[in-house]
């Protein structure tokens, strides 16, 4: 089993997995749609009370069994291997459209570098989104193929510092804009009244879990490569603080621009691809330097770096599982899984291209985001909690050593919250978190999810006897 070469390598990799499109683009969209600072209280509570314990649980289980998600499930009970495949399947489906989004970012970066103006609607009327999807898929595969230390760790050591430096530089620049005051007021004026709004809570919990990549087996997979001496609670807190800091800093870059140009903060997903490029172009006007172009290159550059390190973590979950389950080499597992992800992602890529592939009137990408992107998160998190805190006493003991008193939160509070917010979303109480098309696609999305889950359970069932079975090792009591 490979290991991270250092504690810093591990932290940068997990922060790289967490920090992604979710922090910079989705966070600003969700904050904008949920009334700005009002939303911050539920967001911070969800992060530290709910997400941190789950983060620690995943890291602790990963380190204890030192294996992939599927084998970890199997170690609680042989019959649970199919559930591990459900988690892996969810992750790969998320990856399939995440790579499409990453492709858009890459295209906007290329346009900014070359100084061409890219209009979102014109862009998605052509074939570049598909070409970009091929490029981002290949890049992700190359990194994972190179391995934990030589691929993933090398990448994060190179690009994560860049992400922080670019973000800080952009925030300093944003502080000089006229809209900065309005932006800070919008972002940081808390409002206790929203605490009684279930929609805001649901959006906050969903956003925190998405943003931290928690409950998806990603942290479990990365935890398998962690050294014995690492303090997991401290690491989980550091990851969370870094993730939140990036989201807030991104807000401090995006909203001053939005307010300076009198644009709509509640534009949602469009914010990054239509609102901001327009604003960046306007920054150039009247200035001797190509400020807008520089800012655009910085912004899309950091967005691309952050997205790539997240995509890599998603693919690693599948590759680690396939390697063990089928006793494949890393190369073979990477080639096979990348092909699967590519085929699964093609309809999403085509849905925002000249082909305009749609499902019941909505772009396939939106359908996937509203089904898998929305429901795979709580479903996978619930499966992890069930297997490691309820079914297996050995696993529970491992988690308890790290979490101590907070085990209660993970064991009793988290499942209730997850069930309630998922139920609220299904019932249509909750606000759209990512896209504005929720109601139209929720039903088909849900049907698509059920079909996908059934298929995965079947596949997992067929594969359940393969691979090794791990044992939980207790470190100290
Ligand atoms: N957390 C990453 C982001 O913020 C990506 C991700 C989302 C990973 C959902 C896993 C699950 O963009």
Question: How would you portray this structure in words?
Answer:
By secondary structure, this protein is mostly helical. The chain contains 19 helices and two strands. The protein has helices spanning 7-18, 21-33, 40-65, 69-76, 81-114, 120-123, 128-145, 148-174, 180-188, 198-212, 218-223, 232-260, 270-284, 291-325, 330-351, 364-391, 393-403, 407-426, 438-463, and strands at 358-359, 362-363. The protein has a two-stranded antiparallel sheet. Strand 1 and strand 2 form a beta hairpin. The chain starts with 6 loop residues before the first helix and ends in a 14-residue tail after the last helix. The site of phenylalanine has 13 residues, from helix 2, helix 10 and helix 14. Phenylalanine binds at residues 18, 20-23, 94, 210-211, 213, 216, 218, 310, 314.
């Amino acid at each position: 089993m490979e290991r991270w070469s250092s504690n810093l390598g591990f932290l940068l990799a997990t922060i790289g997995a967490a920090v992604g499109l979710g922090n910079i683009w989705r966070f600003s969209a969700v904050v904008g749609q949920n009334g700005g600072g009002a939303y911050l209280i539920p967001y911070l509570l969800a992060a530290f009370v709910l997400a941190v314990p789950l983060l620690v649980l995943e890291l602790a289980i990963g380190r204890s069994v030192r294996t992939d998600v599927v084998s970890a499930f199997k170690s609680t009970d042989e019959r649970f291997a199919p559930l591990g495949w459900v988690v892996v399947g969810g992750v790969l489906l998320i990856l399939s459209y995440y790579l499409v989004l990453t492709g858009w970012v890459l295209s906007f970066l290329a346009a900014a570098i070359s100084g061409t103006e890219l209009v979102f609607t014109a862009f998605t009327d052509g074939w570049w989104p598909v070409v970009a999807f091929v490029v981002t898929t290949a890049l992700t595969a190359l990194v994972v193929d190179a391995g934990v230390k030589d691929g993933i760790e090398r990448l994060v050591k190179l690009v994560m510092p860049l992400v922080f430096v670019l973000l800080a530089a952009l925030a300093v620049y944003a502080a000089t804009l006229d809209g900065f005051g309005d932006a800070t007021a919008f972002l940081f004026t808390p409002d206790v009244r929203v605490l009684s709004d279930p929609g805001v809570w649901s959006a906050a919990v969903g956003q925190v879990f998405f943003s931290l990549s928690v409950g998806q087996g990603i942290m479990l997979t990365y935890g398998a490569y962690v050294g014995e001496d690492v303090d997991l609670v401290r690491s989980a807190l550091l990851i969370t603080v870094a993730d939140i800091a990036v989201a807030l800093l991104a807000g401090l870059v995006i909203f001053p621009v939005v307010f300076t140009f009198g644009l709509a903060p509640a534009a949602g997903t469009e914010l990054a691809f239509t609102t901001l490029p327009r604003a960046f172009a306007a920054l150039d006007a009247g200035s001797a330097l190509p400020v807008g172009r520089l800012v655009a290159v910085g912004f899309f550059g950091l967005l691309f770096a952050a997205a790539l390190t997240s995509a890599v973590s998603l693919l690693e979950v599948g590759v680690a599982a396939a390697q063990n389950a089928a006793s494949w080499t890393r190369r073979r597992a990477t080639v096979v899984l990348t092909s699967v992800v590519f085929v699964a992602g093609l309809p999403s890529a085509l849905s925002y291209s000249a082909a305009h592939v749609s499902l019941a009137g909505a772009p396939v990408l939106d359908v996937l985001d509203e089904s898998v992107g929305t429901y795979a998160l709580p479903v996978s998190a619930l499966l992890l909690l069930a297997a490691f805190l309820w079914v297996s006493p050995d696993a529970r003991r491992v988690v308890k050593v790290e979490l101590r008193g907070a085990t209660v939160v993970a064991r009793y509070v988290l499942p209730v919250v997850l069930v309630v917010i998922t139920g609220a979303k299904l019932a249509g109480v909750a606000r759209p978190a990512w896209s504005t098309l929720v109601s139209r696609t929720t039903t088909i999305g849900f049907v698509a999810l059920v079909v996908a889950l059934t298929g995965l359970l079947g596949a997992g069932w067929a594969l359940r006897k393969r691979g090794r079975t791990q044992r939980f090792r207790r470190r100290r009591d």
